[in-house]
Amino acid sequence: MIIQKIEIQNFRSYYRENSFELINGLNLIIGSNGDGKTTFYEALEWLFRTDGTNKMDTKYISKKRSEELMPNSSDDVRVAMTYEHKGRTKALEKMFHFTKSFDGEVTTSNYTFSLIEGYGIERVVKDGVAFDKDLPSEMRKFIMFKGEQDLNILEKSNSLKQLVDEFSEVQNFEAYFSFMEYATKNAEQARDNAQKLDKKNADKIKGLKKTIEQEKGLLSDIDREIHIKEGEAENFEGLLKNIEQSNEASKLLKSVNQRIERLSQRRSETAGRIKENYTINLLDDMWILLGFVDTAEEYSALVNGLMNERKKQEDQYLITAGVEKAIKEAERGFTALPAHIPGRKIMEDMLNEEVCKFCGRKAEKGTEAWNYMYERLQEYKASLEGKADEGIEPLYKNNYIDELQKRDTTLNDNLSDIAKMRRKVQEAIAFNNRLHDDIKKIDANLNTEFEQKKRILAQADGLTEEQLLANYDNISNWIDKKKKAEGRIDILKRQREQHRAILEEAELSLSKTSEGTAAEMYAKTALIIQQISNAFKNAKEENKRRLLDAIEEKSNLFLVKLNTNDFKGTIRIIEKQNGQGEAFLMNNDSMRIFNPNTALKTTYLMSILFAIGNLSAERDETELPLLFDAPTSSFTDTKENEFFGVISGLKKQVIIVTKSFLRDGSNGEAILDHSRIEDIDGRVFRIEKKRPFDDKKLGTIQTMITKVK
Amino acid sequence: MTNKERMLHMVLDDKKLQELYDYDKSEYEDLYTAMNSENVVVAAVARIIKNLDGSTDASDQKKVYMTVFNYINDNYLL
Q1: Do residues A555 and A615 make contact, with C-beta atoms less than 8 angstroms apart?
Q2: CA–CA gap between residue A154 and residue A159 (Å, rounded)
Q3: Which end of chain B is more exposed for a tag (fewer CB within 10 A), N or C?
Q4: What local confidence, expressed as pLDDT, does residue A334 receive?
C-alpha cells in the first residue's frame, strides 16, 4: 500500500482545503509545537477508524472556519486519502457537514465514510468499512505510532498472537488445530465403540483405557503445574533482573538511609545539649549583674573620691584645729610625757617578749615586773584617750561616707563573683556556639546525603524508595524461590516424559489389543489421527518460533543500519509464559542490556517495526506504510541525519511528523534548517501557523503547508 | 508457495511422524503430490489441509473428518 495523497479540510487547525502529495519513500512533515503535526496524525487516525465511533464531533471542526461562517451557512470537515494497493488506486474519504445557526450554534450532519475504487463510469463507491480489507484494523497498531513510547508493540496485549496471525509463515493454524482436536476425539470414540464388541480383550482394553485416562489426567496436571512454575520462575527472574538493575541503587539507598539516620540522631543529641534559656539565666543565675559592672565601678570611683576628699578636708581641719589647740595648750602650759614611759611600741614589744629592754632583766608574764610594765602601758593609753576626748571635734560627725564605703566593699566582693560569672557565661555561650557549628556541619552532611538520595531515586526507573528497599530485602528470598520453581520444573518435565511414554505405550497397546479383531482398523486410524494431531500442534509452535526468529534476524539487520557508529547490541525476541512477546537487547556475553539509552531503544524498536513491515511485504506482496509522530525526539542531529538517511534507503513509504530540522531564528521563531534538509532523500513539507495570530484566540490559528522538497 | 503448502511442509516436518511413517518430506512440494502419495499419513495430512480450507464451521469439520477417517480406514495396510 502506498499513500499518494492526503487531503485535510476544516479539520481543527487545517483551515479550508489542504493536501499532502506523498512519495513512496521518506516523507517528512516538519512543524514546531502547535503547528499541526499531531492534528495531521489524528486526522488520519479519524479517517482510519472503521468501528463506527467518533463519526462526527464539533471538536474536529476548524475553529477559524466555524467562526467566520455567516449564520445559516455551512461547510464540510473532510479527510481523504488516495492510495495504491495491489495495483489499484483507491480513495478513502470521511466527511461530515457542519452548519452555523443564527444564534451562533454549530451543528453537525450528513456523515459519510466511503471507499471509492476506479474512475469515471467504472467508479465504485463502497462503505469505508471495506478499507479493513486493505488495512485490517488490528494491523494499524503495527503501522501508526505516536511518540517514542508507542513503539514497543510487543508490550501491547495480544500483539504476539496478532503478529502470528498476520505475519507468520503459515497462517490460520488455529482452525486446523481446532479440527484436529475434534477429529481425535471422534476417532477415539469410533475406536471405543468398535472395541466394545471385543469381549475377549474387554478387561485388557478396560485396564488400558483406565491407564490412558489416568495418564492423560496426570499429564494435564503436570502441564498445569509446569505452566504455573514457569510463570513463577519467570516472575522471579523478572524481579531479580529488575533488582539486578536496581541492586546498586538499593545498596546505595540503604547506606544513605543509614547515614541519614545516624546524622539525624547526632543532630538531635547535639541540639539537646544546647542550653539557651538565657532569660532564666539572667534572673536565676544573676547573669543580669554583668550589665551593672560599669555602674559598680563608677560607684566605687565616686566613693573613693569622696573618701579622699573627706581625708583631705579632715587633715586640713586637724591641722587648723591642732594649731589652735596647741596655742591653747601653750597658754595653759605643756603636758609632760611621763618619764617612765619609753613609748607605746617599745612597751608592747617588751610585754610580748617578756623582757625589760632598759635593764635587760626578764619580766615573765604574771610577774611583778611584767605587771608593772603593763600598768604603765595602760596608763599611757588612758592618758592618750583622755586627751583625745578632750581634743578636737571631728569634722564629719555622721558615718555616711563610711556606710557608702562599706557598700562599695560589698560591691567589690560581688564584682569578683561577677568576673567569675562572666567566664561562666562566656564558656556557656562558646559551648552553645560550638554545638551550633556542629549542627551546621551535620546539616551540611545531611543535605549531601539527601541530595544523594534524590539522585538515586530519580535514576531508579520509577521505583519508589519502598520498592528499592524491599528489593534489597527480597533478593535472597526471590533467588531461593526461583531456584525452587526451576528445580520443580525439572522434576515435572522428567515426570512428563515418563508419563508421555506410558501414555504412548498404553495407546499403542490399546491399538495392538485390537489386532486381528474387527476393531483393529478403527484403533489404528484413531492412533494415526492422534499422531497427525500432535504433528499439527508441533507445527503451530514451530510456526511461531520461526516467525520470532525471522523478526529477530531482520530486526538485527535494521539495527545495524540504524546504528552505524554506535553500540547496538543484539535484539532478542521471546515468547513469555503469559503468551505475550518481549523484545530486548543483549550484549555479546549473552547478558541482557537493561535501560538502553532512549535513542538506542527507539532504533531497536523501530528495527522490529521495519522487520515486521518487511515480513508483511514478503507474505502479502505489499508493503504497508509506516506513520510516526515525533519518533526521534531523543536523537542528536547527527543521529537523526543518519536515521533519515537509512530510512530513505529502505524503499519503503515512511511518513514522519517531526519538529526536527528546525532551529531558533533571531526573533525566536522556528526556522527550517535548509542545510540539513539538503541531505534528506525524500519529500519534505513544512507546516506552520499562519502569522499573525492571536495566541489567546483559537479562531486565528491556521496551519499552512509548504512543500519544501 | 501457498499458505496450505507451507502448512503441509511444516506438519510433515514433524520428526516423530517421519519416524513412524517413514516418508521423505522433500518429495512433497505441493498439495497435489501429497494427496496422491502412497503414504497414507502424508495423503491424510494433505486432505485435511486441502479440504478443511481453514474453516471452523462444524459441518465442514464433520465432512473433512469423515473423508479423512474413511481414507485412512480404506487405505492403511495393517
Answers
A1: no
A2: 6
A3: C
A4: 47
Is residue A309 helix, strand or coil?
helix
- Contact of B75 with chain A, judged by CB distance below 8 Å, is answered with no
Q: What is the pLDDT of residues A427-462, one digit of tens each?
A: 999 999 999 999 999 999 999 999 988 888 887 767
Give contacts of A 438-477 with B, CB under 8 A: none
- For residue A160, give the amino acid letter: L
Question: Sign (positive/negative) of CA torsion B12, B13, B16, B19?
Answer: positive
Q: In this predicted model, which residue has the larger pLDDT, A287 or A358?
A: A287
Mean pLDDT, residues A474-501 taken together: 87
CA angle A355/A356/A361 to nearest 5° reads 75
Partner-chain contact A179 B44, CB within 8 Å = no
CA atoms of A34 and A693, how far apart (whole Å) = 12
Output the nine-digit C-alpha cell for A199: 469381549
Looking up cell 542531529, which residue turns up?
A637
Identify the burial level of A148 via C-beta atoms within 10 angstroms of its C-beta, where 0-12 means exposed, 13-18 middle and 19 or more buried. buried
User: Which amino acid appears at position A564 of this protein?
Assistant: T
Mean predicted confidence (pLDDT) in A685-700: 84
Residue closest to A410 by CA, chosen among A529, A299, A258: A299
Q: Which three cell numbers stand for residue A152?
A: 514497543
* Cα of B7 to nearest chain A Cα, Å: 6
**pLDDT at position A243:** 67
Residue with cell 513469555: A576
Count of positions (residues) in chain A: 709
Residue A144, strand partner residues: A627
Cβ within 8 Å, pair A532-B10: no
Three-state SS for A534-548 is: HHHHHHHHHHHHHHH
Question: What contacts A641, CB < 8 A, 6 or more positions away?
Answer: A676, A679
Integer angstrom CA distances of residue A552 from A159, A555, B64: 15, 5, 37
From the list A170, A522, A534, the residue facing B16 with the nearest CB is: A534
pLDDT digit string, tens, across residues A92-115: 999 999 999 998 899 999 999 999
What the block records as the C-alpha cell of A356 is 625589760
Question: What band does A385 get if pLDDT is binned at 50, 70 and 90?
Answer: low
CB contact under 8 Å between B6 and A169, yes or no, is: yes
Q: Which amino acid type is present at position A224?
A: R
Please report, as a single letter, which amino acid is at residue A49. Answer: R
pTM reported for the whole predicted model? 0.62
Q: Which amino acid type is present at position A618?
A: E
Closest to A519 in 3D by CA, of A188, A210, A186: A188
Q: Which residue has the higher pLDDT, A400 or B46?
A: B46
Whether residue A171 and residue B3 make contact (CB cut-off 8 A), yes or no, is yes
Asked whether the beta carbons of A699 and A61 are under 8 A apart, the reply is no
Mean local confidence (pLDDT), A507-520: 82
Nearest to A290 by CA among A279, A282, A298: A282
Nearest CB partner across the interface for A172, out of B3, B68, B69 = B3
* pLDDT value of position B40: 93
Q: Got the DSSP string for A261-279?
A: HHHHHHHHHHHHH----HH
Q: Which of A507, A89, A455, A537 is nearest to A256 (CA)?
A: A455
Confidence of residue A389 (pLDDT cuts 50, 70, 90): very low
Contact B45, B21 (CB under 8 A): no
A167–B contact, CB cutoff 8 A: no
Report the distance separating Cα A227 and Cα A10, nearest Å.
54
ipTM over 0.90: yes
**Predicted confidence (pLDDT) per residue in A176-228, tens digit:** 999 999 999 999 999 888 888 877 778 888 888 899 889 999 999 998 998 88
| DSSP reduced 3-state for A688 | strand
Chain A with chain B: Cβ pairs closer than 8 A: 94
For helices A173-195 and A520-562, what crossing angle results, to 10°? Answer: 160
